[in-house]
Amino acid sequence: MPNTHEHSVTMALDALRLYPGAAMYIQSQSDGAHARHKAQFIGIIKGKSVMVTLPFENDKGMWMQAGQTFVVRGFNGIYAYAFSAQVIRARAHPFPYIHFSWPRKVDCQLVRKALRVELAMPAKVALPNNSAVAVTLLDLSAPGAMLDSPAALGALGDHARIGFAVDFEGNTTPLDLAIIIRNIHPKEDGTGFRIGVGFEAVAQNEALILHYVINNIALGANP
């Protein structure tokens, strides 16, 4: 059983039920190291090691020395998790990957879907008829957003896609998400509509980015 304190829990790695290919971000614990590098989860040897693809930097595989300590972060759809592990060894075949030591614990944060942040971010909605409408994101949460739109975008239950760019680890990262229209409210001044949309079929990597951005904005960072 995990130890719980509010929305934080400590779990065993295998309890997260990660699937092969799940996105992970690793960061060296060396002095002055701030960069996080994307990798993918491969699998585990329970109690012994964690296998992760070798991150690449400038089109070259990163040099990772045995004994070097990294923090590994990710999101499994329910928890944002982090753990420390040491490099055991690197392998080149059948593809470049790393054996990390088995973590003694994994710190997890339950993602509260109710967390919603206010913002004013430009976005573009692509409609099924191949037209596009420039909108403004008024607020953002893991399950959806509120839009300021000059047009109604459709009827309740209609589907579309929304694209916008966020700051993720200092890099401008585009997101392209499927949406469903949940509610439509004409603005009192007659200049358009406020439209509530829900995100659909969000991939694990996109969910991780959304969680990161929402929490950073909640802590006072710029989106």
Explain what you see.
The protein is mostly beta strands and 223 residues long. It folds into two domains: 3-110, Pnp Oxidase, Chain A, CATH 2.30.110; 116-218, Beta Barrel (Thrombin, subunit H), CATH 2.40.10.220. Helices cover 7% and strands 55% of the residues. It has one helix spanning 204-218, and strands at 3-5, 8-11, 23-28, 37-45, 49-53, 56-57, 60-61, 69-75, 79-91, 97-101, 106-110, 116-126, 132-141, 144-149, 159-168, 171-186, 193-200. A six-stranded antiparallel barrel has the order 3-4-5-10-9-8. The chain is elongated, with a radius of gyration of 20 Å.
Defining key terms:
single chain; 223 residues; mainly beta; Pnp Oxidase, Chain A; Thrombin, subunit H; 2 domains; six-stranded antiparallel barrel; 17 strands; 55% strand; elongated; disordered N terminus
How many strands? Answer: 17
Compute the CA-based radius of gyration: 20 Å
Q: What order do the strands of the largest sheet run in, or round the barrel if closed?
A: 3-4-5-10-9-8
H/E series: EEEEEEEEEEEEEEEEEH
Report how far apart the termini are: 36 Å
The CATH superfamily of the largest domain is identified as Electron Transport, Fmn-binding Protein, Chain A
> Which percent bin holds the helix content?
under 10%
Uncertain spans: 1-6
| CATH secondary-structure class of the largest domain | Mainly Beta
Beta percentage is over 45%
Main beta-sheet annotation = 6 strands, antiparallel, barrel
Write the CATH fold name of the largest domain: Pnp Oxidase, Chain A
The tally of domains stands at 2
Q: Please give the CATH architecture of the largest domain.
A: Roll
Average pLDDT confidence is 86
Shape verdict: elongated
Number of helical regions: 1
Structural class: mainly beta
